[in-house]
Amino acid sequence: MSDGSRGKTVKKAEGPFSGGREQGSEEAAAPLTDQKDGLLPLYRDLLESRGRLEEEVHRRTLALATLAHEIKNPLAIVSGYVELLLTQKVGPLTDRQQNILAEAQANCLRLQKFAQEFLAYSSLTMGKASVTVRMESGDLSACLSEVCGYWLGKFSEKGVALYFRANPEIPPFLFDYHKVQQVVSNLLENSLKFTPTGRAVWLTAEPHILERRGRMGAPPQVERRSASVGGSDMAQVTVSDSGKGIAPEFHLEVFDDFFRVPGDESEAQGAGLGLAIARRLVQMHGGKIWVESEPGVGSRFCFLLPMQHA
Hints:
Blueprint: E1 2-3, E2 8-9, E3 11-12, E4 22-23, H1 30-33, H2 40-86, H3 95-125, E5 136-138, H4 140-158, E6 161-164, E7 173-175, H5 177-194, E8 200-208, H6 220-230, E9 234-241, H7 274-284, E10 288-294, E11 298-306
Parallel strand pairs: 6-8
Antiparallel strand pairs: 1-2, 3-4, 5-7, 8-9, 9-11, 10-11
Helix pairs in contact: 2-3, 3-7, 4-5, 5-7
């Protein structure tokens, strides 16, 4: 950068070890160019260590994904046989035998869900070409209404009410219909898991104008004009529940891979990947996702989708 008062070039040390030093000579670059006892070798060592760690994580993820794929079919077969036995078409069962088989079936389904969830996660994190976003013009309200229909049965079984209201103010825009449904399914499943019987979960969608004044790009006056002329540029989808809530210190961590809120292990029935998958799918749309929650009050999981038109 240039010093306007002297017309002199000022060089700034680059890299994470620069310590923010600025000097008017080439000495500022010395820590990264001194091959003998400077910081450049250490910096390179850190980059190499990071590369090795990423490679190891990739290798283990691939191994676990292969394992998850291999156990899917045997689990499906076992679950099918258990279901057949429960129909009693191959012979009568005692009450105790039915209870044992029902428990076995529940655990088979749980393991199948683990395998499916991990395969979805590994596909997203390993950058598989098959995981792409198909942006097509669609009706967001119809998309959300359909996914609610999938979940009504499970909510009824637990005695939790599920409410959804279509919003005619959101026009058709470009998004991946099925991936948005996957995001909403993960959020609904999470809310159902932690919402007690007799309470409710709400799914809503509404237009949203993204606050862009703090973002780099066009001057503020241009940003304000584009927002006022174009109207709402985002759609906000919210899943609100009346469960136990999440402490503020975990509001960012809940979207991390394999994370479970401390103290919820006894209730959690997943691998801790549902919200992590949701975050990646929202980001693939160019959106953002967050949680607003207070212990004892409930949680609001929200995500934004850019309303791009064909």
